Structure formats: structure tokens, C-alpha cells
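Handover notes (outgoing to incoming on-call)

Open items:
1. Polymerase nucleotidyl transferase domain-containing protein: sequence verified, structure written out, both below. Nothing else pending on this one.
2. Nothing else urgent.
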Amino acid sequence: MNDGSIAAGSAVSRLPPEVQARLAELKASLERTLGDDLEGLLVYGSAARGGYRDGQSDVDVVVVLRDASRERLDAIANALKLARYAARIEAMILTADEIPRAADVFPLLYDDIRRCHVLLSSRDPFSALVIDEKNRRLRVEQELREAQIRLRRAVVDAMGADEALRGAVVRKLKQLRGPLHALLGLHGIACDDDLGAVLAEVGRLLGVDVAPLKRAHEAPGAAHAALTALLARAVHDVDRLDEREGAR
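Polymerase nucleotidyl transferase domain-containing protein C-alpha cells:
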């Protein structure tokens, strides 16, 4: 990263110039303040996948510290606050030794980061990370069942208003990209991890018509029905995976 650019050739290098500048400032500040105590700085999420939308998306970063003491956190607080307010750069702070130990409780998040991230500084603590398949399946089921429960509550809260239902469906679809992509992975199906590709592939796998989901803004009622059907099939499917695993 010494050529004056931010991750040349990656999706990060295609971010708006002002966002790249804020990332470069954050990188320089953390390196200057922490020195060897900065174990890693990387970008993940939509900014790393190429799905960043100016004015709508956050820029998700992981700051990996050798030591997450109060002293270290206080030292970087101002830089992180400036980055957040200047360019919606949201930092998750981890320590290097906790990443492999926490992979069992954050399997989908860590797997998402491992699959697609851009290293800005120091070393890469996610490249060799191993995610246990059982932990991945359990987390997929948990997130799908939570989505079912929250979607039902959203319908109640909408009280028949299409605008509220539309917002609930659109938000839920974005949140489901990760667990649905992971469900495909459990079946050994390779797929791009953008939302459209994931929905299309999951629809084929589960035999659900996902076309109404693309028209959620125009027809929220039909989109809700399609999403409800998709979630029901997905939960049933991931349950069957557990049964097959138990029968081995």
C-alpha cells in the first residue's frame, strides 16, 4: 500500500475519491498511532464486493489489534469517529487471538469476511480461517428462523399499509443475502454473493418463484408472499440437512 493508492485493482479502488481519501487517512492514522500493535486493517461488505452505493452504503472495516486495552481504544477513538462521520466508515474492532476462537459463534460473518475482503494494512488474519460446517448450518437456521419471526412482526406493525410492508420486505431481503448464500454453500453450490444472484440460485434450489421479490417496490403484497414461501422452504431445507447429517 505504499503507491499512494488504496487497494489498486480491487473494488475499494472504485469507491468515490472522497471515500478512498478518508480510508487512506484512517489507515495512516492507525499505523502512526498503533505501530506494530495494528495487526490488520481490512475492508469487507459491499465496499469489498463492489456493491457500494454512494450515499446509501456504509464502508465496513475490521481493525485488528494486538491488544484491545482501554489505552489503545482511547488512542484510536478520534480517528474512528472522524472516519464514521466523514464517510460512513464503520469499524469492528477485534483482537488477533480472538478471531479463530470466535469463528464458532460468528461463522457466517467471519466466512463472509474471509471470502471477500480487501487488506489495507498489516497481515490478513482471515485468509486461513477454518469455519466448521456444523456451526455454519446452525447459524444459517438461526438467522432464517429469526427472519421468519421478524417478518411476521413487521406485517403486524404495518397494519395493512403497503408502504410499511414494502420497507419491511426490502430490508429483510438485504439481511437474508448472507444466510441464503451460506445455504447454497452447504449444498456445494457456487454462486456470486450479490443479492440478485443469490435469490435466483436459491429460487432454483428450493423451487420458489422469486420474480415477485424483484418487484417489491411495485407490489409489496406479492413480494411478501414470495418471501414467506422462500423462508418456509429454506428453513425446511436446512432442517433436512441436519437430519441427513445426524443419520450418517
